[in-house]
TrEMBL record:
This is Reverse transcriptase zinc-binding domain-containing protein. Pfam families: zf-RVT. Residues 49-133 form the Reverse transcriptase zinc-binding domain. InterPro entries: RVT-Znf.
Amino acid sequence: MERNRKRRHQNALLNQVEHEILMLKERRVHGQADEFLWRQKDNTYSDQFQSKETWQILHGPSPTWDCHRGIWFSFATPKFAFMTWLAAKNRLATGERMECWNTNVHIGCSFCAEPKETREHLFFDCLYSRQIWEALVGGLMGSDYTWKWTNILNQISLNGRIDMRLFIVRYAFQATIDSLWIERNRRRHGEKPITNTILVRMIDVMVRNRLSTMRRNGVKKFEDGIRIWFGTRRLL
Ligand SMILES: [Zn+2]
């Protein structure tokens, strides 16, 4: 079959396109393989492939790119960090996002009467989750305390020394996000709801376990962790 046969189109523009393609094919050096080039940040092309740059060109700049420092830190629990990362990128299947894929799905909050569940509502506009967050870190964060999503991300991503206080806030944040997401999914599957009083106790145990593991492993600079935690967290 003749692959370069010129087709006739009704539309004059398509004929023009067809013509340009033929011209390019004729100009091409025969016997030479096509070369793949990747677009770079500055709009030039190169044969160097960089996954991060290509990802950013395809998806556009990410507003939460800077918060990786506050999420992927030493002694984090990978599962919690991953869930937090998904939340930071707004990739969790919240009601608001599910509505785009399926109009027949329940998109309200599983904890309260809010008709549209968004990431910001879950973490921590919702009274159910806000009470948990405040009980866990209200005392620890003191005057820096905030329950607003973007403010929390800013707080945990601050440059500078990672002290015990910052470590606990980061860790409690991730444990809380993971626990709330699990409880939210349990409720959506019709399981018996867990009160936020119980959930605070469950997250308290997760944080305590992490801090005592670190102490047993001799992480010297974090020795005070348990004492600080017991002195600041409040059980509902
Ligand atoms: Zn709610």
